[in-house]
Amino acid sequence: MPNHGKKYQEAVKLVEPGKAYAPREAIDLVKKTSYAKFDATVELHLRMGVDPRHADQVVRGVALLPNGLGKTVRVLVFAQGEAAKIAEDAGADYAGSDELIKRIEGGWFDFDVAIATPDMMGKVGKLGKLLGRRGLMPNPKSGTIVNQSDLPRAIRDARKGRVEFRVEKTALIHVPIGKVSFEDEKLMENLATLIDAIQKAKPSGAKGQYVRGATLAATMGPGVRLDLGQTLSLAAAA
User: What is the pTM of this model?
Assistant: First the structure.
């Protein structure tokens, strides 16, 4: 392992080569092998049996993790008039129209989730390239374009631990499920919820084995291969 440092090489010795671990065992091992000095994020990596080049095989969706992600989520809402006031009263960190668009055009991105009311999308659309590459563009499929009356719920969902997932061109999905400091049970609950959401997001064009491989890993730590059958069965308990 010439490309990895000593800490990684020591951590990877704890992972048995070729072994597929039960989810609970894998979570325990991910914690033990995380060598970061900060509270690292635990991520789920899935290898999917789809071809994202075809529109009817794109896997995309949202999951509301019951135990959150262990971080403060900054919410921005594109809205005007009464809708902007509703967003502010509901706890949005930023709410507004033209002034926020100008700040973003100037390179400001100090927020984690962007929500918009439908009437704002004509203006927000010109931010497509800036927000899209950061995964921040409001989209009806991800529940971030909502009517005025739904703003409080959308803002609450964003704060709870709302995560978006989308298959990459390489047929991989990468999603955080929490922090290394989380109790094992909380990580298990988040994992089960996410697996359930991904199973339900199976596209109409998916043929054969939908999920082909699953791995858990900390931000700084080796990947721990999951037993696929046991992992997918978590969806039933979600």
Answer: 0.78
